[in-house]
């Protein structure tokens, strides 16, 4: 073990030398778009609790109720004894919410992507895989060792060109993209992606982690009502104020995943208290139209203010607004200065984002006020 410990220490020393050393710090989400850290209350610009539901009493109550009713743990994987009425009820509600024939729960968004992609590829060995250059790390985890044709971010002409050149002879074609990109806060043109997928007979899977609850009719996401999106994946860990993930799809795909997706088959079913919180969020989210409008107005205000101060906001058109700084050290220094001024805005650096594009990733919550946005802009001035 001695020599392995030395290897670990060397790896950490290299990370430290690159200025990429990171540590875990306790923080406490609070109502009103606030977060507690080091005994202080800060304006929170770094969480993904977009609708403020993580502190909503209805979610906490129902989590407790479902824990009492169904138990705190599911007890087994879904195909053994882990499926109870709560799982089936939530899956039916998600399918209805997303407007798809079926839905399947996963332990987390990471796990869903990392598990579903290999299962899909296993059904068509030798398939051609096309991915947007900015898809999330969890999709890359699901594509480990797979040759990818990566198209320039949101550049559908490039995708069309790659499909024409590389997809024809393959037994199947897969396109993986997101509807809202987590670090840039920009949107994909989902109908155009779906049209392209249909034209090339490609299977299209879209990650709606950051759109679920926030965009689309009643917060149902940008894939809602778009024909030709075969699988929609999303999380409950962001606007739904809870945890876990779903894949919404056809009954055929659902049945296939239940029988062929290892990350589904061999993992314990999500715990009932978490499902209770999701159930409560499903009661609230479709009607949160005013909150969604407020969130969009805050994001407009922030983008306008950032542009006036010379910041590139990377094409953001959602509640995620990056302020591109560029150099890592300068981004860290800016983040530290904001913390002193009472604002938590974490610096996002490579490898999470490309080198030279370090940024403050500003994520708004519907519980923020215009004054909160103005306080941030003032602190940046
Ligand atoms: N997809 C995207 C686009 C994400 O941003 C994230 C979370 N950072 C995930 C998937 C993973 O979801 P979860 O946090 O629920 O594991």
UniProtKB/TrEMBL annotation:
Its signal peptide is none
Keyword terms of this UniProt record = Biotin biosynthesis, Pyridoxal phosphate, Transferase
Describe the location of the Aminotransferase class I/classII large domain by residue ranges. 42-380
Please report the organism this UniProt entry assigns to the protein.
Answer: Novosphingobium piscinae
Please give the family membership noted in the entry.
Belongs to the class-II pyridoxal-phosphate-dependent aminotransferase family. BioF subfamily.
Gene Ontology molecular function, alphabetical: 8-amino-7-oxononanoate synthase activity; pyridoxal phosphate binding
Q: Which reaction does it catalyse?
A: 6-carboxyhexanoyl-[ACP] + L-alanine + H(+) = (8S)-8-amino-7-oxononanoate + holo-[ACP] + CO2
- Assembly mode: Homodimer.
The cofactor(s) it depends on are: pyridoxal 5'-phosphate
A biological-process GO annotation = biotin biosynthetic process
The pathway entry for this protein reads as: Cofactor biosynthesis; biotin biosynthesis
Q: What Enzyme Commission number(s) apply to this enzyme?
A: 2.3.1.47
Q: What is this protein called?
A: 8-amino-7-oxononanoate synthase
């Amino acid at each position: 073990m001695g020599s392995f410990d030395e290897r670990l220490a060397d790896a950490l020393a290299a990370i430290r030398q690159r200025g990429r050393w990171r540590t875990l710090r306790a923080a406490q989400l609070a109502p009103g778009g606030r977060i507690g850290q080091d005994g202080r209350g800060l304006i929170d610009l770094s969480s993904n609790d977009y609708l403020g539901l993580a502190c909503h009493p209805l979610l906490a109550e129902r989590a407790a109720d479902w824990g009492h009713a169904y138990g705190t743990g599911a007890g087994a994987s879904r195909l053994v004894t882990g499926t109870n009425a709560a799982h089936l009820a939530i899956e039916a509600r998600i399918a209805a919410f997303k407007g798809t024939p079926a839905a399947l729960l996963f332990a987390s968004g990471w796990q869903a992507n990392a598990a579903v992609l290999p299962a899909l590829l296993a059904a068509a060995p030798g398939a051609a895989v096309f991915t947007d250059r900015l898809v999330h790390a969890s999709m890359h985890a699901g594509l480990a060792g797979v040759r990818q044709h990566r198209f320039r971010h949101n550049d559908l002409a490039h995708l069309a060109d790659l499909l024409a050149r590389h997809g024809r002879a393959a037994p199947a074609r897969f396109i993986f993209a997101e509807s809202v990109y987590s670090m840039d806060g920009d949107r994909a043109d989902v109908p155009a992606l779906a049209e392209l997928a249909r034209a090339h007979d490609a299977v299209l899977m879209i990650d709606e982690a950051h759109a679920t609850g926030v965009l689309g009719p009643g917060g149902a996401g940008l894939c809602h009502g778009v024909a030709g999106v075969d699988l929609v994946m999303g999380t409950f860990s962001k606007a739904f104020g809870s945890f876990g993930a779903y894949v919404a799809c056809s009954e055929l795909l659902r049945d296939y995943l239940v029988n062929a997706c290892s990350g589904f088959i061999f993992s314990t079913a999500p715990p009932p208290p978490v499902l209770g919180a999701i159930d409560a969020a499903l009661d609230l989210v479709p009607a949160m139209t005013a909150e969604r409008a407020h969130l969009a107005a805050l994001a407009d205000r922030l983008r306008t203010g950032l542009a006036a101060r010379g910041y590139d906001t990377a094409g953001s058109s959602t509640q995620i607004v990056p302020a591109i700084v560029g150099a890592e050290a300068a981004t860290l220094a800016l983040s530290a200065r904001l913390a002193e001024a009472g604002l938590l805005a974490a610096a996002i650096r490579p490898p999470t984002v490309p080198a030279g594009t370090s940024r403050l990733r500003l994520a708004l919550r519907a519980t923020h006020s215009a004054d909160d946005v103005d306080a941030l802009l003032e602190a940046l001035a």
